[in-house]
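Hi V.,

Quick status before I head out on leave. The structure for the redesign project is tokenized and pasted below; the design run finished overnight.
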């Protein structure tokens, strides 16, 4: 269900990124918009100023993350080339502190940043996706001078995800129509990066997600398919990823609606979710083991617009989705 108290406008413009705090005691939602603003919503605060808005970036906020081992730190990355961090426990005096900035080229331009990995990989580093096909492996606790840049694709990377069972394995989704898997331990030494596996798609891939066990991959592609690949029990480190399910899904959101990013149901290797362009507006729920069958549609009357992004609380029965008008909706 979605009640009136479970809807709030967090930012003035289109939401590009969405995150939920792992706090076990309350629901905190963060959303970043197209003009560099970040809104924080304390869902249980009622009328007592539940939304705070910041402006840490000058361009779209393409990724936000609260890492499990850093639950009081909100990381944000932007097309302006920077990663910033907000101390969520710092009350009103807090501000976003820059922890990484992509270097400028000879023309004064820098690569845009398109996303942050959902979790940290081996050694505590997160993966930052860049428009030049590189990823940056950054430990937010250490000086950014120690960030490692690895060229993985020839075109921009939209999404990256570490395997939960093999944190040295990173999956990347790219404009070059592939998803690739990498062993981050083997990416140094000046050698050209060699993928563990490369999975071809029909068009650019906007999102990739490991399942809870690490044994499956879920991808969102602009060829109007949601795909599930099975690693044959390899937990992310295998080379033979077989297509298990391909679901027809209209992913042509256009220029005014944020691209869909399908998500696994929390803790699942079977159920997965994606926003929908169908009427009435809502969220499609599919079963990978059921051949991609539509299990149900979440379509409450209170949601009258397309919701593109989905974030789930890691322990509470709450799901948050966002639209292109700056609003967030909470399902309980």
């Amino acid at each position: 269900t979605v009640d009136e108290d479970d809807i709030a406008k967090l930012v003035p413009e289109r939401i590009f990124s969405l995150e939920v705090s792992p706090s076990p005691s309350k629901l905190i939602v963060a959303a970043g918009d197209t003009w560099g603003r970040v809104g924080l919503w304390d869902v249980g605060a009622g009328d007592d100023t539940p939304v705070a808005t910041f402006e840490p970036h000058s361009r779209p906020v393409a990724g936000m993350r609260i890492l499990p081992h850093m639950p009081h730190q909100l990381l944000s990355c932007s097309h302006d080339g920077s990663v910033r961090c907000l101390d969520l426990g710092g009350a009103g005096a807090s501000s976003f502190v820059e922890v990484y900035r992509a270097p400028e080229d000879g023309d004064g331009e820098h690569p845009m940043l398109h996303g942050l990995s959902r979790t940290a990989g081996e050694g505590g580093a997160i993966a930052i996706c860049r428009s030049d096909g590189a990823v940056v492996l950054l430990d937010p606790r250490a000086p950014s001078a120690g960030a490692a840049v690895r060229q993985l694709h020839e075109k921009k990377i939209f999404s990256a995800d570490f395997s939960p069972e093999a944190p040295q394995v990173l999956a990347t989704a790219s404009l070059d129509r592939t998803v690739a898997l990498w062993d981050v331990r083997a990416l140094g030494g000046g050698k050209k990066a060699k993928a563990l596996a490369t999975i071809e798609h029909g068009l650019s891939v906007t999102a990739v997600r490991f399942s809870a066990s690490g044994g499956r991959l879920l991808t969102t592609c602009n060829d109007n398919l949601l795909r599930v690949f099975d690693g044959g029990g390899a937990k992310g480190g295998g080379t033979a990823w077989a297509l298990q399910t391909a679901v027809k899904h209209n992913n042509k959101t256009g220029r005014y609606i944020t691209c869909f990013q399908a998500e696994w149901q929390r803790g699942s290797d079977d159920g997965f979710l994606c926003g929908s362009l169908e009427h009435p507006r809502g969220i499609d729920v599919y079963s990978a083991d059921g051949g991609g069958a539509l299990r149900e549609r979440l379509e409450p009357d209170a949601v009258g617009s397309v919701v593109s992004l989905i974030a789930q609380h890691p322990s509470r029965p709450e799901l948050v989705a966002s639209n292109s008008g700056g609003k967030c909706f909470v399902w309980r």
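Above is the designed sequence. DSSP finds no helices and 28 strands in the chain.

G. will cover questions while I'm gone.

Best,
W.
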